[in-house]
């Protein structure tokens, strides 16, 4: 069994810094490298003594931007010097652990210089994107080599409160206090380091319906002056929505927030006839981004209702797709969320009943509800073809395979994404520890301690860049062997609506 000394070596330049870090760690291997890393021999000796240890460089730094204040913590995602740039890829994971300690944390570039930086030099460095400056980190990373490494610095002075400012003393006290508080997070980071396998579930990420919906908004933004209004989130992913907002999309909850005669996009989840009528009354120029597979379910709801059926909609209350489908025939549609609800259902004519499904459900769970309905209502009719989306099924099949081989499964997707949440549930039913993360910053580093095989997937509304960023962060904890587990090849493509086809 390893000891803390085996797991991590912490390198601090000055005696006060090393003392503060050591107190926060409760002991361990803390090496004082000296200013400008002049005592590099000590570092070499410690690294030889602990050949498997990860290394954290911890000390104080000067802020280059005024929105940092003394005591704030900077986790370097890269360290720049005249000799080149070191990338610190696990920065998002360490930063999240530090935030859990109650520290104010920023991720960004640190630049190493051989002298104290004053203005206007600091402003020039900040203009290149650096947020803090020190005099040792790059040199120390050179010594550390290829083993897992992190650089974390607490702010002692800022552009408006320089080292010669009367507030330097309290700033120094705040910085040293933050260094002490880092200890538990540094231990957790070290416990998560090590080589591992990464298994990518394939298919993952965008489905054809999401690609179509996003492209509709992108084309409108390219060809028209913003704003372009979108009712609800175009797809359930905060990254996608945020990037479209930056380009001029305006997301609204209801149509009364859209000016008359403006262009509005209906989201991929579909809308009820009442919403379409409201758009006509306001003379809105509607571009419909409803997924064709959702439109199919709407058509089936209308058909069953015209036949006089009571329509059971298997789905989750409050989901926008469910609200739209319920709106097709509200007087004849009953929402069923679980098999437990079936026994209490009463209908006008048990011989005239049918069922539909929300497209993003877990197939095994939805089939359990459908089975209960068939047992209660033997005359039950179903849709002409499966309602659950091909992409939902494919992603669940793939994550099921990955989960069987993984110590932990991470699913990239937003909390309001039904299909992403279902992927987590499918993985958990296979016996794997599984978590939904909106982005790499939401990963709890404790999940990775001892996890030598990590499974990765992404919901149908989550962009592939989220998975790429997670793999990149994991590579900062040690070597990663990335392989794919592909269970299906997708070739589905949906045509764009005529309103944007030739714009």
From TrEMBL:
It comes from Saccharomonospora marina XMU15. GO terms for molecular function: 4 iron, 4 sulfur cluster binding; 4-hydroxy-3-methylbut-2-enyl diphosphate reductase activity; metal ion binding. SUPFAM superfamilies: Purine and uridine phosphorylases. (2E)-4-hydroxy-3-methylbut-2-enyl diphosphate binds at residues 236, 269, 319, 359, 417-419, 461. Dimethylallyl diphosphate binds at residues 236, 269, 319, 417-419, 461. It comes from the Bacteria. Keywords: 4Fe-4S, Iron, Iron-sulfur, Isoprene biosynthesis, Metal-binding, Oxidoreductase. [4Fe-4S] cluster binds at residues 207, 291, 389. The active site is at 321 (proton donor). This is 4-hydroxy-3-methylbut-2-enyl diphosphate reductase. Catalyzes the conversion of 1-hydroxy-2-methyl-2-(E)-butenyl 4-diphosphate (HMBPP) into a mixture of isopentenyl diphosphate (IPP) and dimethylallyl diphosphate (DMAPP). Acts in the terminal step of the DOXP/MEP pathway for isoprenoid precursor biosynthesis.
């Amino acid at each position: 069994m390893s000891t803390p000394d085996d797991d991590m070596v912490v390198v601090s330049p000055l005696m006060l810094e090393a003392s503060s870090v050591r107190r926060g760690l409760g002991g361990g291997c803390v090496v004082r490298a000296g200013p400008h890393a002049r005592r590099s021999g000590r570092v070499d000796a410690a690294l030889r003594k602990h050949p498997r240890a990860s290394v954290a460089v911890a000390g104080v730094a000067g802020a280059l931007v005024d929105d940092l204040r003394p005591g704030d913590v900077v986790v370097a995602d890269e360290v720049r010097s005249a000799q080149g740039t070191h990338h610190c890829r696990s920065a998002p994971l360490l930063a999240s652990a530090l935030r859990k300690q109650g520290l104010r944390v920023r991720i960004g570039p640190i630049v190493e210089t051989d002298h104290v930086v004053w203005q206007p030099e600091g402003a020039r460095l900040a203009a290149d994107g650096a947020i803090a400056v020190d005099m040792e980190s790059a040199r120390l990373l050179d010594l550390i080599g290829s083993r897992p490494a992190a650089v974390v610095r607490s702010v002692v002075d800022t552009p408006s409160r320089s080292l010669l400012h009367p507030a330097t003393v309290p700033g120094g006290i705040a910085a040293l206090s933050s260094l002490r508080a880092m200890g538990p997070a540094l231990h957790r980071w070290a416990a998560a380091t090590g080589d591992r396998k990464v298994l990518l579930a394939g298919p993952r990420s965008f489905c054809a319906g999401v690609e179509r919906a996003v492209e509709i908004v992108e084309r409108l933004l390219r060809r028209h002056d913003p704003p372009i209004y979108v009712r609800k989130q175009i797809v359930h992913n905060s990254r996608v929505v945020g990037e479209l907002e930056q380009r001029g999309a305006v997301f609204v909850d209801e149509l009364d927030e859209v000016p008359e005669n403006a262009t509005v996009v209906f989201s991929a989840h579909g809308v009820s006839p009442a919403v379409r009528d409201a758009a006509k009354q306001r003379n809105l120029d509607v571009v419909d981004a409803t997924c064709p597979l959702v439109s199919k379910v709407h058509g089936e709801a209308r058909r069953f209702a015209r036949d006089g059926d009571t329509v059971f909609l298997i789905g989750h209350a409050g989901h926008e797709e469910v609200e739209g489908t319920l709106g097709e025939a509200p007087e004849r549609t009953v929402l069923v969320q679980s098999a437990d609800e079936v026994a209490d259902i009463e209908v006008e004519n048990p011989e005239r009943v049918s069922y539909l499904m929300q497209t993003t459900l877990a197939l095994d769970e939805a089939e359990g509800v459908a089975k209960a309905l068939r047992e209660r209502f033997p005359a039950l009719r179903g849709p002409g073809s499966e309602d659950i989306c091909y992409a939902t099924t494919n992603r669940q099949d793939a994550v099921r395979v990955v989960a069987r081989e993984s110590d932990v499964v991470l699913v990239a997707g937003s909390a309001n994404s039904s299909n992403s949440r279902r992927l987590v549930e499918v993985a958990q039913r296979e016996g794997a520890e599984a978590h939904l993360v909106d982005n790499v910053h939401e990963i709890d580093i404790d999940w990775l301690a001892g996890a030598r095989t990590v499974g990765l997937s992404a919901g149908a509304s989550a962009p592939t860049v989220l998975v790429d960023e997670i793999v990149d962060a994991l590579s900062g904890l040690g070597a990663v062997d990335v392989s794919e587990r592909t269970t299906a090849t997708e070739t589905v493509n949906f045509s764009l609506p005529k309103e944007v086809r030739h714009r």
